[in-house]
Amino acid sequence: MLSTQKGFTAMAKKTDDTAGTDVTTYDDKVSELYAQTKTEQSPLFSDDILSEIDTPEQLAEFLASQGVVSESIESYGTGFRVVRDKRQLIDVPLALIQWRFNIGDKGAMVIVHAMTQDKRKVIFVDGGTGIRDQLERVTVERRKRAHKHPQAALSIPGGLRVSDYTFEDPKTGEERDASTFYLAE
Fold it and tell me: What is the value of pTM for the model shown?
């Protein structure tokens, strides 16, 4: 079971009916996994063998000869794909599933999980004054109203819209093109 406490996500597991709940942070789980892996794992193949593999075909043949079944990370993921160009979502109706705010190298940003009307599961990031600011306002308003899930479930019937403009870079004095994306009603 996942629960949020003081701004961090924790994994809570009931140990028995009378013991209550133990809270284990994500970092604790990762540390435990690495400790187990370190004691249970050794290299499967020598560097000499690996150095002889030069193509994906040779790799597949070698793994098959060793009885190793190759899998794809897609088998373990959520099916969400990062959208690198938000222009793909202009005028595409969206349902925002959840969003979270974070601080990145360039300042505040919002990370959004959404589903498009054509059933694509997408993740996009916005650090500008458009989507990020819109979702900050939605979140603040929902919290004021004691919304149970202030950062989830928001319909965006118009998809995204974009405002393209030119500005003068204060560091170089050069004209630069920029875009701000917005959630469209």
Answer: 0.67
